[in-house]
Amino acid sequence: MRLSEAKKGEKVKILSIGNRGGTTRRMVEMGVTRGSAVEVTGVAPFGDPIDVRIRGYQLSLRKEEAEAVEVEPIQ
């Protein structure tokens, strides 16, 4: 599934990040990396932006960015 599909309160693990040039590089620099655990803390109406907690800090991602991130639920 994609990070953009995760619901508020859901915890997921990043499997891969799609190649979108500068956007991918910027997300990696912010700590969005393969294997990282992510908790969705908020989703704005219409799904943009998506607020997440990753590596102990809050981050807001645009829906377009979140669609590039493949994740799996953490049990």
Count structural domains.
1
Low-confidence stretches: none
Q: What is the distance, rounded to the nearest whole angstrom, between the alpha carbons of the first and last residues?
A: 15 Å
User: If you average the pLDDT, what whole number results?
Assistant: 89
Q: What would you call the structural class?
A: alpha+beta
Number of strands: 5
The helical percent reads 10-25%
The amount of beta strand, in percent, is 35-45%
Could you state the oligomeric state of the chains shown?
A: single chain
Computed Rg: 11 Å
Mind telling me which CATH architecture this is? Roll
Order of helices and strands: EHEEEHE
Global shape: globular
> Which strands sit side by side, in order, in the main sheet?
4-3-2-1-5
Largest sheet report? 5 strands, antiparallel
CATH class: Mainly Beta
CATH topology: SH3 type barrels
Task: State the gist of this model.
With 75 residues, the protein is α+β, with helices and mostly antiparallel strands. The protein has helices at 22-29, 63-67, and strands at residues 11-17, 37-43, 50-54, 57-61, 69-73.
Describe, in plain words, how this protein is organized in 3D.
- The chain has a 5-stranded antiparallel beta sheet with strand order 4-3-2-1-5.
- The protein is built from 2 helices and 5 strands, in the order βαβββαβ.
- It has a single domain (3-73), classed as Ferrous iron transport protein A (FeoA) (SH3 type barrels, Roll), CATH 2.30.30.
- The model has no long low-confidence stretch (mean pLDDT 89).
- The chain is globular.
- It has 75 residues and is an alpha+beta fold.
